Amino acid sequence: xxxxxxxxxxxxxxxxxAGYWLFGHPFFIEERVVMFFAILIATGILIFYINKAxxxxxxxxxxxxxxxxxxxxxxxxxxxxxxxxxxxGIVDMDQVETVAGVVILGHVAHMTAKYETPLNVPVARSIxxxxxxxxxxxxxxxxxxxxxxxxxxxxxxxxxQFAYAAGVNGIMVREKPAACFYQGKFYAESLLLAxxxxxxxxxxIAGTAxxxxxxxxxxxxDYTLIGEEFFAASAYLSDDPKLVGNVKGMDIIKMYxxxxxxxxxxxxxxxxxxxxxxxxxxxxxxx
Length: 287
What we know:
This protein is α/β, with parallel strands linked by helices.
């Protein structure tokens, strides 16, 4: 869909809705018209930028140093003849951070397969083990190196938080990986892992959306993906038009939300001062 078709389709939807509204709009809750148009505009923005990316148009995404360092970290391990350690968090697949960590694992596995670098992925949940194993297997197959894959690349340690941290620390001390990735949801064990990795001289790249753990990773790791940088990592690493367009679209939506909030605050202040009669809170409130 090119821009012309997109705008024609958008105009067609508005004309149909206008006709529906003029004919009495049955089954439509008038108090939720703001929500309806918010969903319509957000969907349109996402579709617009995804199609733009699919057409090969240049979409600017801010460079994130931590993501640029992924290949550098794997390359360092390759040069030193040491393994790469990847920790996908300590919670199950029902957490979006774990899902994002497993997706990023696939990209790291592509690099380790390409450079024939040993990969070690200890996990704390059985379902995560299965998902991570399939992600790594697919990466090795796509790189044409299925002979390098073995199921023990992804292995289960324990469900217990500090027993898992102790097990991963033991792997670090014994194998001394040159690169350590911590990508997922972490709790108090974050500093234990990062400090051990720092003590063996490994390059460390962390990524999490857990606000309480970000300071520890920032202090002890070389690079840290903070919050939405972590969730956008897959789009940066894969350069998939759908993912890149989605990230850009979400950024534009956030910009419009911020503008709307600032405008609403201004209108509310004017209303409170008695300068205008329009009550923006009543207009925006979803009933």
